[in-house]
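I hope you will forgive my troubling you with a question about protein structure. The record follows directly beneath this note:
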Amino acid sequence: MFNLFGRKNRASNIKPPRGPGDTIRPEDAAYLREWAANKSFIEAYIEPETLVNEMSVVVVSETGEFVRRRIGGPKGIDAVAKLLGCSVYDVEETGYPQRMRERIERDRILRKRAEQLERRARFASDESLGDAGDTDK
């Protein structure tokens, strides 16, 4: 029943998506190459591996646009540097560039404004429908 002295259960068949020594996937490499093709100035920032995420790269353009892709492991750093031909930084040492943070904040503000306009338009249409039904005034 408890099998205290017997053999342990077999190892599970669950495997990580790829080993820690692997490099960037071909589809991720193609996407990064295509994304960077029409950008004039780009830099790459390596994000460390965590319990939930593989090692990844954030590629930032001069306007603050950015894209994030998994690179698998340390071999992926060299692959990204060779693929994009840009400067590569460790985000833990340098942090993210200011232009990226400003772009994120600007996009957040624009998204909030669009949501407010949508709510106001919806509120105005609800008000006009409510006023049309009132004949006592």
